[in-house]
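Hello again, I could really use a second opinion on something today. I've been staring at a protein lately and its backbone has me curious. Please have a think about how the structure follows from the sequence. I owe you a coffee for this, so here goes:
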Amino acid sequence: MELKGTIQTIDAIETFTSKAGKDYRKQFVVIEMPAGDRKKIVAFEARTDAAIKQVATFKEGDFVNVHYSLESREWNGNYYTTASIWKIEKYVPTAKVEQGDLPY
């Protein structure tokens, strides 16, 4: 799956240790996308070293195309869904962008 939007927020990289004792990292990236009169946001996770390296090449306000996968898991009768980045690339708008407008 993929989504085009503007990077609204890039969080700091967080480090965790699994129950098995293995360290892993993740980083949240919030993307704002157009939705008619209302803007919508999606929070993505960069969970692999490759995805975290790719995110490091961007800054807030950049237009990007995010390739991601969805995964849901059940815990105590509740379901939790994660949108994980596997590739993020620069998106070049084709139209002139006025301040505050998204180009798509």
In short: Strands lie at 2-10, 14-17, 23-33, 40-46, 63-75, 78-90. The mean pLDDT is 90. The radius of gyration is 15 Å.
